[in-house]
Write a structure and sequence with these properties.
- The protein has 131 residues and is of the alpha+beta class.
- It has helices spanning 11-22, 27-34, 37-40, 49-58, 87-96, and strands spanning 66-70, 80-84, 111-112, 120-121.
- It has 5 helices and 4 strands, in the order ααααββαββ.
- The longest helix is centred in the N-terminal third of the chain and has 12 residues, at 11-22.
């Protein structure tokens, strides 16, 4: 991926955006901050809290954590809790994440050891007969 901070111009802009989004500042306070001359000199690609919030909402989300209390036959000081992600949400998150867009390839292929195509190499699932 050319820009791992996509939606932002680079690491510095992402750091400013991340700080603003996590700061707990109101939209008005963020707008006041962004209107400071020193901040304008940074040439950020967003100039208002609304633009920043819009970009943040476009970022890929991660799977939600779920929890389940596990009953035990023996008493414990605190409940036994299993935290987990839905596996389908995890797969969906990976397949839809822009970082992996160029890395994922689902095209079946044949790999041979010689130019005469005599011996097929099975090194991964996509080189197999069932791919």
């Amino acid at each position: 991926m050319k820009n791992p901070y996509y939606l932002f111009s680079g690491q510095k802009e992402w750091e400013v955006a991340s700080w603003l989004l996590r700061s707990g500042l109101s939209m008005g306070k963020i707008n006041s901050f962004l209107s400071l001359e020193m901040i304008k000199d940074l040439s950020l690609s967003f100039s208002s809290a609304k633009e920043l919030r819009g970009r943040a909402e476009m970022l890929p989300s991660s799977p939600r954590w779920m929890l389940q209390v596990i009953p035990t036959s023996h008493p414990t000081k605190s409940p036994v809790i299993l935290y987990w992600h839905d596996p389908l949400d995890c797969i969906s998150s990976i397949l839809n994440h822009p970082t992996f867009h160029e890395e994922l390839d689902f095209t079946p292929r044949r790999v041979y050891t010689t130019a005469q195509w005599l011996c097929c190499v099975y090194s991964e699932w996509m080189t197999g007969d069932d791919a």
